Every structure is written in structure tokens, then in C-alpha cells.
Amino acid sequence: MMNYFIALTLALATMLPGQGDLSERTYKKSRKELEKTFSDSLHTKFIPVPDSIRETYKLQKKSVFRVWDEKKEAIMILATAKGRYDYFDFMVLFDKDLKINKVKVLIYRSGHGYEITNKRWLSQFKREKRPYRYGKNIDAISGATLSGDAITQRLNRLTKAMQAMKEEDTLHRISASTNK
């Protein structure tokens, strides 16, 4: 009985969000968000990220995509962050200049800190200068301090990952290899 409990605990621990692959639900929700942002002729292409960058910036497997339609193009990163109790999944759209165009919390699993899912609060990341500082150039939220700080720190790290991918020419190679 004890061996069964230990095996179950280990199995569940390896499936926690934020600890590896993203859930199918996260991919589906990101697709719905992209459909709101792009036209019916939306295209997506997975961008393989070098292991060195993926490990340094703690990117999940299969989390970076080029997305485009006939009028616009972006890079989407799907990511997780940990609030006070639970992980949450979110997406970020970067333009070609590596500026954030959109941040959307896709799945928020906790009953505390849900305020960070507010569209108006998330829009701060589009207009503020980096690095983002929770409570300084990013408004703090009462009741969501840990989640707000977590997403702020994670967005700083994702921005650095994008810069590293640009420097390694990862983003240009995928853009050049895809016909519009």
C-alpha cells in the first residue's frame, strides 16, 4: 500500500503544470485567443528553441510559435508561473521588435490572486518600459501580490529569452523558412 502511495505521489508530481509540457487545454485556449486577434487565415508554426535557451529561461517544451495572417505577424510564447498556491498558464504575443502586444492568462487554477487575469491590469505590460517592476512601473494588486509578482518576473524572463533567440537567429530562421 505504501509503495502504491509513493508511486502515485511521484506520478502526480511529474504532471504538475509548470513542470514540463503544457496541457492540451492550454493549447486550445491559446488558439481561441489567437482567433480573436488574427483573421480567419490564421497560421501557426512551432519554433524549436535551442536547449540552452529553453533551460536557461525555463521554457516549456513546445511553447514558442510564430503566428501570422495576411496582415500581421507575432511570436507567441505559452508559459506558466506559480502564484501563492497553484500554477497558472498564460500566453504572450511579441511583435517583430520584441515588444509585448498582448498578455492573456489562459488558465488560473487558484481561488486567490485571480485579479491578475483582468485585461486592464495585463495591458500595462504593453505600455510600460522594461524591466517590469511589480509595485513600481506595474501596479500592485491587493489580494494578488504573489501572482502579480510571479507573472511580472516571468514576463521579464520571457523577454530575455526572446532576445536570446533573436541573437541566436532562431526567430529569423523560422520566419525565413515559412512562406506567407
Can you describe this structure?
- This protein is α+β, with helices and mostly antiparallel strands.
- It has one domain (17-177).
- The protein has helices at residues 2-14, 24-37, 51-56, 119-122, 124-127, 145-167, 170-177, and strands at 43-46, 64-68, 73-82, 87-94, 100-108.
- A five-stranded antiparallel beta sheet has the order 1-2-3-4-5, with helices on both faces.
- Strand 3 (73-82) and strand 4 (87-94) form a beta hairpin.
- The longest helix has 23 residues, at 145-167.
- The protein is globular, with a radius of gyration of 17 Å.
CA radius of gyration:
17 Å
Q: Quickly count the domains.
A: 1
Pattern of helices and strands? HHEHEEEEHHHH
Major sheet strand order: 1-2-3-4-5
Number of helices: 7
Low-confidence segments, ≥5 residues, pLDDT <50?
A: 1-19
Roughly what fraction of the amino acids lie in strands? 15-25%
Sheet/helix structural class: alpha+beta
Helix content: 40-55%
> Can you summarize the main beta sheet?
5 strands, antiparallel
The average pLDDT value, as a whole number, equals 85
